[in-house]
Amino acid sequence: MSAPTPPDGRSDPRYGAPHHGGQQYGPQYGPPSGQQQPPPGYGPPPGYGPPPGYGPPTGPGQQRPYGPPYGAQPPPFSQQIYGQQYGQQQAGPNPLIPPGFGGVPLPAGIPAPVERAFRLWLGIIAVNVLGVVVTTIGVGDYVSGVGIVFALIGAAIGVFLALHFRGQRQWARLVLTVLTGLAMLSSLIALFGALVLLAFAPVYGVVQLAVSVVFLAGGTLALINAWNAQSNAWFGKLGL
Asked: Out of the domains of life, which is the source (predicted)?
């Protein structure tokens, strides 16, 4: 016995399938064949699937504009996450490494006054260490050894600053200027002490006198070359 048909020809959920080709349909049967629509929320979430560039080509003889070729293995998951989120950042050179060392290139066009000041500072440092060693040699006690150690540490710091000065570091020029001024003041005081020392210990007096004169003369020339017009133009505006 067939199901009864509604009198108006429309579909009724109680009677089953639509009648006389009607477009309406009962909710228990679903949409007609050929007009199936997935319900809302059905299917994979957005962004699901392989990243762009993976998978087979879209047509014969077509070249994919981006991504690895078909069949290539994608990078590991951790590299995808961290590479996309943080990027591939390359560390710059260490600012403590003086230019000319450790792969840090020297700046181009170093002016002659800057190069002269650099060599004068190296000469002053070497003379100061030599003077400390000569004046303390033969004493043989603990205090003299400590003095030599401190002289070597100070020389290492001075060379470090001089190398950065030649590398166009404004902060190195400022620090060297302050330290040179203090050392020249100390050498001026030591100069008068050396004159007195000549009467009691001529050898040490002569060494101290020579070191003081070299430091005063060399420091003055180094500061003049480091702060003349050509050097100021090369270093640029005063700052770190």
From this structure: Bacteria
